[in-house]
Design brief:
By secondary structure, the chain is α+β, with helices and mostly antiparallel strands. The chain has a domain of 183 residues: C8orf32 fold, CATH 3.10.620. It is 65% helix and 7% strand. The strands form two sheets. Strands 6-5-4-3-7 form a five-stranded antiparallel β-sheet. The chain has a two-stranded parallel ribbon with strand order 1-2. It is elongated and about 95 Å long. The C terminus is likely disordered.
Amino acid sequence: MKVLLTTLALLLIAAVGAWFPSPAQAASPPATFWSATPDRALLREVLRASGVTDDEKRRLEEEAFQSLLDEVVREVGRVRSPYRRARKLHEFLHARVFRRYDATADGLDSILEHGEYNCLSASLLYGLLGRSLGLEVQVVEIPRHVYVRFLLDQRRVEVESTAHNGFDLRPRLSSFQGLPADPGYGSDAGASSLAISEPVPESVDLERAVGFLWHNHGRRALEHGDALAAAQSFLEESKLQPPDASRSDTLGMYLARAFRLDYEAGNFDSAYRIAEIGMEIFPGQTTARDRLLAAALKRIEAACEAGRPEAAEAILDGAASTSRSPVNTRRLERGACPLIAAASVRSEQWERAERMTRRFAGAEPDATESRRLAGWVAKRKQEALVRLMENSCAETADGSFQSPFISLLGSAAGAD
């Protein structure tokens, strides 16, 4: 009987310990079902596209993101169900992180530092946190707006990232169909409920979604007159999202505007680089190639006027290589070779001048024009040689120049 009572007492003590944990046990953090590891490479790309290029600032933003992720894990780390985990993430962000909607707050740093967000920055933050929590997250683009899509248990869950009640929206007909694909992500979107079109639009992975951020960056740079920065942003966008038929017209329009800004302002070096970017994005586009040749010719003119025919020839060679079109190269040579030949004559670089006449002859179908340029260069070269001879004779007459042959002849006479 005594043994039985002792056993019952021990069982009671164990039960009480299970219901009331010790202070050490109570202080330990709750167990989670995974180790939340952020995608550092993606995080850095999002920060770079957000304009965070300083190493120290990037380090601080990464630390801020890690602190936020740690807090998220403490809140939702024990939730097994992917659906409930995604929903709790949505609730957490709107309760603790998203403070003020701002249509211009594209960058991830805007949220991490101030809690300011738009549809794009909010969706990218969702993606980074969701991926860290083991969720499959994508971003959906509709005209002038993006939103989040979770792929959970073979089901699509649509989430309006800017609305606190936007989790798991059901598709319904909307007026978005048929509008041009000129996003400006976040420019008009507010915290209203999302109208998802039928059929449900396609989504892109998070890496490609960073292209939306580059697109906005390019548009804003263009609005501020920084044409080269705009073109460089559009190039970054095209690397992540090669322009399809619906995007190419819009992107081509922006590149044309950027080129025109610098070309008309006389900034021919940057205009040329913008044209090069256009060739990279649209290698077969005639207008992009025409812009390249126009800017190249202006740069060649400037180099010739500055007395640098060697630089002008290098520009000609570079443009011909970039163009990769024999027809367009000949067009450029017909305009550039006479300019470089004339600058070479002025600086008496006869080899280059003659090379330009031969190159012009290969590009110019009118043989009369080719002979005229070659004859002019030959005449100027002959005049320069005559002047050189006259100067040599004058130096001999006044005794300032003595031929080395005189001493040799004198030595030979004395030997006889």
